[in-house]
Amino acid sequence: MSVAEKLTARLPKIADRGDKTDVVSVVKLHGVITPQASPFSRGVLNVNTVESALTRAFEHDRLKAVALLVNSPGGAPTQSGLIAERIRELADEKKVPVLAFCEDVAASGGYWLACAADEIYAHRTSLVGSIGVVSGGFGFTGLIDRFGIERRLYTAGENKRRLDPFEPEKPEDVEWLRNMHDQLHQLFVDWVKQRRGERLKDDPELFTGDVWLGPRSHELGLIDGIGTLREVVKQRYPEAEITVAEPKKPLLARLGLGGPAAAGIDALLTAVEHRAAWSRFGL
Question: 170 an active-site residue?
Fold first, then answer.
């Protein structure tokens, strides 16, 4: 048998061996969770920006598990819920386990995403939790008075002008907002209890909106262990190949035209808001 024939005879065996390699797909869930994603958006999460990455992650034929790399200070509750539900939908359809790995921070909506996994791991220095609801704004009544600006607003419906930043704050509006927060908080608590079950400890601090480092979050049952993606995957699936499922980038980002300057004042204000979301956790 010639050298060429020997090499040809070996090719099917090499291909067969490669075809049998197990795969663990990784999806990076990094950024502030917000529905506001423009063609210039970078570092934001919503159900549209992650859909392509999630689909790719779950479509491998030899898929053993999907790993979520979560690094998010939270954001919009609806988008958090939509992303988490999409993850569960794909996991149930493909019948594969999902593991979440908290990086710098998995707080508020970021922890909501982590709870979509069957198991959650964190680094010793990760910030985990913040199971609560927060919103904020500004009041400009003094500012418009100072410059002699007259506010003109026309509505149909007595509650259409609630929390108008150009009018003095009304107690009944604040009470309405608090009631909305309470309802959203309860939905968040219900989701965590549904996903974590008996692993959660009966601790009065658990749902106060506080955040903890990895070891304490493990004690509270918010996570299943301390470890990194490569450590856990190597132990659990020693023969598996780790592949990263990247989302499709917006066209302008692929052309290198993104950034606050290109998007104008609105993008600049959004960037400041996102910076504030990270800074709440010292990041």
Answer: no
Please confirm, yes or no, whether 80 is among the known catalytic residues.
Answer: no
**pTM for the whole thing?**
0.79
At 16-28, the pLDDT tens digits run 444 578 999 999 9
Per-residue pLDDT, averaged over 218-235, amounts to: 96
CA terminus-to-terminus distance, the chain: 64
The CATH number corresponding to 18-133+198-279 among 3.40.50.300, 3.90.660.10, 3.90.226.10, 2.60.40.10 equals 3.90.226.10
- Active-site choice (108, 126, 130, 217): 108
Task: List the chain domain ranges.
Answer: 18-133+198-279
Judged on CB neighbours under 10 Å (0-12, 13-18, 19+), 251 is exposed
* Token representation of residue 17: 């061996």
Q: Under the phi-then-psi rule, with left for phi > 0, alpha for psi from -120 to 50, and beta for the rest, what region is 269?
A: alpha
Model confidence pLDDT, tens digit, residues 75-114: 999 999 999 999 999 999 999 999 999 999 999 999 999 9
